[in-house]
Write a structure and sequence with these properties.
Chain B: InterPro entries: ER_ret_rcpt. The complex is a heterodimer of chains A (about 10) and B (about 210). Chain A is low in regular secondary structure and about 10 residues long. Chain A has no helix or strand. The N and C termini of chain A lie far apart (about 20 Å). Chain B has a two-stranded antiparallel ribbon. With about 210 residues, chain B is mainly alpha-helical. Classes of the chains: A little secondary structure (about 10), B mainly alpha (about 210). At the A-B interface, loops of A face helix 1, helix 3 and helix 7 of B.
Chain lengths: ~10, ~210
């Protein structure tokens, strides 16, 4: 599963 | 956003301000590894290309821009402004050993085999080991200016605080990011020796010195 919302992390 | 990530980001921000302050106050980049700083600049540029096509939030946008700009500014300070104070003869860690494996691992272990995803994954792997040249330098000289240790502590605390952030996100959002978590554990682990000396000596007013 691709944790898409990881891109809100720096 | 949660408190762990916010504090982590603020620690990261603080580390950069401390580093710039150290260079300008002592008018020297002695004790700072140029290689580590160059790797961080590469980490930010490869990770934050999503600025060009993916809007998340103003906070996210400003922070990403700041990290890219400040890392390039630090490279400028070290390479031009205070060049004579940088001694390449003690900054000798071979970064090929970090760049190569990070690149190949990102080709194998990623979420999607696309250019931007591989760049993101590469940046995560590279960040986890980018501190190596700096720690290697510290090991060679055996001591550090106190302000430099504050910089390193803030930088280490930043990634350490991302660990409770991931636990929190797993509980509240059911989100698991194995790539970032693995790299984050490695990155935090690399600081353990340093943290030990920092918390037991430097914070008690003693100089940062490694046992001979």
């Amino acid at each position: 599963k691709d944790p898409q919302n990881r891109h809100d992390e720096l | 956003m949660n408190i762990f990530r916010l504090l982590g980001d603020l620690a990261h921000l603080a580390s950069i301000f401390v580093l710039i302050h150290k260079i300008q106050k002592t008018r020297s980049c002695r004790g700072i590894s140029f290689k580590t700083q160059a790797l961080y600049a590469l980490v930010f540029v490869t990770r934050y290309v999503d600025l060009l096509y993916h809007w998340i939030s103003l906070y996210n946008f400003v922070m990403k821009l700041f990290f890219m700009a400040s890392s390039c500014y630090i490279l400028y300070l070290m390479k031009f402004r205070y060049r004579p104070t940088h001694d390449p003869s003690i900054d000798t860690f071979k970064i090929e050993y970090l760049l190569g494996p990070s690149f190949f691992l990102s080709l194998i272990f990623n979420y999607e085999f696309s250019l931007t995803e591989i760049m993101w994954t590469f940046s995560i792997y590279l960040e986890s080991v980018a501190i190596f040249p700096q720690l290697f330098m510290l090991q060679r000289t055996g001591e550090a200016e106190t302000i430099t240790t504050h910089y390193l502590a803030a930088l280490g605390i930043y990634r350490a605080l991302y660990l409770p952030n991931w636990i929190y996100r797993y509980i509240t959002q059911d989100m698991v990011d194995p790539i970032a978590i693995t790299a984050g554990l490695v990155q935090t682990g690399l600081y353990l020796d340093f943290f030990y000396v920092y918390f037991t000596k430097v914070l008690h007013g003693q100089k940062f010195e490694l046992p001979a």
